[in-house]
Structures are given as structure tokens and as C-alpha cells.
Protein 1
Amino acid sequence: MGQYKGIFSKKLTSGTTHIYARFNYDGIAYPNKNFTKLYGCETEYSAKLKLDEIKILIGKGKNPFAKTYSTLKEIFEDRKEQQVKNGYWVYSTARSYAYFFKNHINKEIGYKKIEKITYEDIMKIIDKFRKDQTGSKNTIIDILKPIFKEEFKKGNIQENIMLKIDKYTVKVQKENLQNRTSMKNIEIMRSLYNAISNLHGSKPMNLEKHKMFLYMLILTAHRFGELTQLERKNCLLNENKIIAPKEITKTREEYHYPIPDECIEFVKTAPNGKLWYVPRGGTAIRLFNRLLNRAKIKTYENHTITMHDTRKIMISIMINDLGIDSRLADYCLDHKPQGTIKHYLEFTYDDKVKAYKKYWNYIKNDTINIDKNNTETIDNSSSKSNTTTSNIDKLDKLIEMLKNDYITKEQFNFERDKLYC
């Protein structure tokens, strides 16, 4: 032990000598602290002076050994590492928050010292989002609020400015679809469906899973939050059926619906656990936005189409285009029946499957017509000239779809050959 109480020198394996301090204060023991590394002390005397300062800080209720940072980015990175290490954040949460921090927070205030960040700085970031993007605004708050709370506790900032910012709870009613796009419902769904096979942008190990998730979303129109939680054990392969447990559904009731043909082989070979590896938050939204771009869905300025819109679009097509009973269409979406209907009207699972298959056939080709008796027919006109004209029109559509990358060359050749069989 050196000449000052609690201060001593230690020679390290590297050959250098560092100054350490070990002391008790107010009933709390503080083990060996490397004052050379922490504060640059090169003599026991300078370490003794530093220790006196530290005791004064402790007496004021501050933690002098708390790690300090120069920028908000450093604080966030350290917090992310600790949250994952302690099991508070799963990998997908950490990745989603990191993506959001990088794209919306870092370029604005990430380089700033936390004590230099103002209320106006944060509101500038939040106000960049549209009024209907309350989820994104709340994500900004979710990332920053615990950081400022902790730094205020440590005494690194004099005011927690995040206490002035409340989370957004007002839900803005979305515009009707017809006010957001000039495209017809069936045009939207066919474009989205055909674009899935040509999707790219995901990591190779995830691309096939992401495509399968999108097929499920487009063809079943079930809530994306439910789809992201589906597991291999929820699939009854001998019946090509999904049984979504009540724990993951909005109504807290079990849902049964068919597996689209496009997904059956994938599900058969999928390992146990989550099927799609598409986290419920940012990843699913980014994936769907990539699909919108790939499908070249055109919307009016400042408007978009969301994953939830696929539910509205499907039920509209079922009722208006295919003549399916509105109550059966509602049943396909597993809405909870209201009033006397839930007591006196009951559709079977077979009814649901037939409605889905009718919808799937309509999305994949445009040869289905609905006659006055509300039955499916195929336009098989006996007139040779009408048939030839019809095939030419269909070929023109196929060529246009190929030009716009809605279908692959293989799909084009297959559909073209079918026209002249």
C-alpha cells in the first residue's frame, strides 16, 4: 500500500505502472479502480487529489464512475448492446431500433452531446413524419425516452426534455382507397401478386421466407401481425390448413384458413418455429414497401397503400367482382360476427375454402366471369374470330406485364403457350 490511504501502484504485465484506488465511503465499498486508465493519473499524489474530488461527488449523490459519452450515438450503441445482453431486447428489436436510429435520429442529433440536445431538436425529427404515421413518431419516443431518463439519473443532464413529449395516441382515419389511387382493386392485387416472384433486396437466406410471407399476406389477407407469429406447428399439412391459435389473433379466437398453393411446399420443409422470419415491426413494413415499388403501385401524392388495406381490397373483390355473399367474405377475414347473425348464420370451413379459391383464381388470371345467376363461367365463345381477338388482347396484356417486370420470362412463355393450346 502506498503512502496515501487507499492509493497504491501496480505494475502490469505490459511493463507499465498504473495507479489504483480502493476505498469505503458512506458505508459502501468501492473496489480497485484504475485511476491511470480512468483519469490519467501518473502519480499516487495526483490519484489522491482525484479521490478527494470523487468523494465530494459521491456526497452530492452522483456516480463519478458512470461511463460518460461524447455523443448520443455512443449512448444508443451502448444501450443496445446492454439490452440484448440482458435479454430485454430480442435480436429483431435491436435490429429494428438500430435501423430507425440510423435513418431518422443519427443524421439529425446523433453527433451531438446529450446535454446539447434540445426539445426543438427532437420535435424537428418527429414533425418530419406525416400526421398518420403515429407509429413512427412513437418509435422515436420509445428510443429516446429511456436514454434521457437514465442520463438524468446519472446527473449527466440537468433536465429530462423527453418528459415534455407525450406518445401519440390519436388514430387518423385513412382516406378511402379510391382517394389514394386510381388503380382498380383487382389491378392492385394482381400487380402485387405477380411482383412477388421478382422481389429482391432481402438477404439470400431470408428471401424465400419473405416471398412466402408476402404470398400469405396477399392471398389470405389476414392481419400481418398474426402472420408474423405463425409457427410450423400451426399448419395442418394433411389438410393444407392453418390453425392460428387464439393467443396470436385479435379477437382471441382460433382461426382456420387454407394455405395458398404457393406456400405449401415451403411449409412442408420448414423447420420448427416461426415460419417467415419477418419481425412484426419495421421489417414487415419495409418488405411490403419494397413490394409496392416492385409492383409499381401508383398512388396520389402523400398517400400509400398499407398491409392492412389488403383486407379491404380482398373483401371488396369477393363481394363486388366475384359475387360472394358479403357475410361469407367477412367470415374469410375472421371478423367477429355481430348481432343475430352470430347466432343464426353459420358458414362451414368448406365454404371458406371455396370462396378463397375463387378469389385466388381471379387474382391469377382474368378469364373468370360472373353471370346473372352468380355462377363462375369461362369465356369459351364458339366464334373463332372472337377467340382470336380475345387471345390477342390477352397476349398484349402479357407483353405489357413482362415489360413492367410484373411476371418473369418463364411465366410469360407459360401463359402465352396456354393461349394457343
Protein 2
Amino acid sequence: MRRGIIAGVIVVVLAVGLFIWLRSRGSESTDDAQVDGRITQIAARVGGTVIKVSVDNNQAVPAGAVLVQIDPRDYQIALDRARAELADAEATAAAARTGVPIAQIETNAGVTTSA
């Protein structure tokens, strides 16, 4: 009977130890609250308001993947403004090329003076 109790206690201790070991796998533990990690700097080619983030924190992504979407409205407004300025400049240039013939007319007044 005594051997059965000791064997049961050993089995329970091993089961609890195995459970704790399985639950703690894959987690970091530290005494000084420091964890080493990799930090990768990223930069956008253009600035703007981010409207959608396509990745999660610490997610591995391949090179060239879209990470965020930037609101295109500011750039569309700038494009429309540039097109309007181009059309205005083209109209001004076309108006400047339109030649109005200028005729030079000289008239002699038939006025004579006496001295």
C-alpha cells in the first residue's frame, strides 16, 4: 500500500512538472527586463495619411510587400492642380502664338508752316 501511494505521488509530481514545462515553452523569461530583438527601419517614398495597415507587429514579410496604404486624395488633388496649370499655360502659349498683323501706316500731314 505504501509503495502505491509513493508511486501515485511520483506520477502526480511528474504530470504537474510536464504540464508546467509544456506551458512555459516558447515564452521569454528574464531577470533584468531586457529582451534582445531585431529592429528593421522602414521608410516610405512619399508621406501621407495611412488608411490601411496590411501587416501585424513582428510579422515576417517578404521584400517588396505592401505594408501600408496611403490616402491618395492629396496626390490626386495635386495632380488635378498640375493638369489645370498645364492647360492654362498651353492656352496662354497658344494665345501668344496667334499673330495679329500690325500694319504700319504713315501719313504726311499737309501742314506747312511759314516763317
Protein 3
Amino acid sequence: MSTKAKAIPLKREPAGFSRGSWEWERCCFCRTRTPYWTNLIDRSGGEQVACCETCAAVKMATQVPTKREWFDKEARLERRP
């Protein structure tokens, strides 16, 4: 399988996007803070999740969690002592 076939399409937050005191979201795979979001054609804009460029290059689109799965994972990890 070629790298191109594996790569997850991404979209960067707009350059002028103001988050105020918010930081970038965490990648759905490695949890690195990233300004990139998936751009999967089978999901609406509200269903996309944060994904860093590194993970997007080595993971497959079928491995991307749903937004609910991503939220639930983050909630569990943030509650850890």
C-alpha cells in the first residue's frame, strides 16, 4: 500500500483563527497539540477530529475514531491523577 493511500486528509485551522486562551486540540492518536483536523469526505465538519501531520502520514482513515470516541478517550485521560 502506498503512503498516499494511507494518509489521512487534513485541514489546518485558519491562520487568523482566534482561540483566546484555548490551546490547540490534542491529536486523536498521539495526543500532541495540533492545529490540524481530519478532512474525511464521509464526515461532516462537526464530526472531524484533531490529528497531527505525523499520525496522518502513518495511520489509515479507517483508524480515525469518531468524535464521540475521541471525546470519551480525552475525558478518561484528563481525569487520570
Protein 4
Amino acid sequence: MNRIDFQQLAQLRIKEAEALLQATRYDGAYYLAGYTIECALKACIAKQIREHDFPDKNLLTKIYTHDLEQLIGVAGLHGKLSERSNLDKDFAVNWNLVKAWK
């Protein structure tokens, strides 16, 4: 899969999560929303890998995960996440719920 594939998958899954949320299927909506975030983070990571470069094995091990906090780190977004969490308490509360997703 490439960056565009992950972006398209994220867009599709968030629409499905919204439909489940409207149908009061909260467990399914939560699952698909978490999967959406995973796909979006993997799209960010894929953007950092240049075409024809052979990725480091350690990097590959880190990105083949469902751990959102680990993916945030690999994507280089810890600083932005901390900054946003400090500025927006609602965001911080929501992130604390989302990061538990597996």
C-alpha cells in the first residue's frame, strides 16, 4: 500500500464510522474511527519514505503495528500532539480516549 491508498482507506472508514455512530452502533464506530486514525498516521509515515528508498528494518517493525502512540512517534508528530493537547483541553481528553484503541 502507498500513501494515497492509506488516505483513501481513511476517508472510507471515517464515513463508515459516521454511519455506525448515527445508527447508535458505538462499538463499531469507535473501532472504525481508530482504524481511520491508524490509516491516516500510516499515510503520514509513507509520505516520509522516498520512492525507491529501501526502508530501514527497524522502521518497518515500528510501522507494522496498531499502536497509535507508536505511530505518532514514527510519524514525528509527538511535538504537535503535545502542543495541541496543551492548548485544547477537549482535544487532550479525546486523545486520551483514542490512544487506547487497539
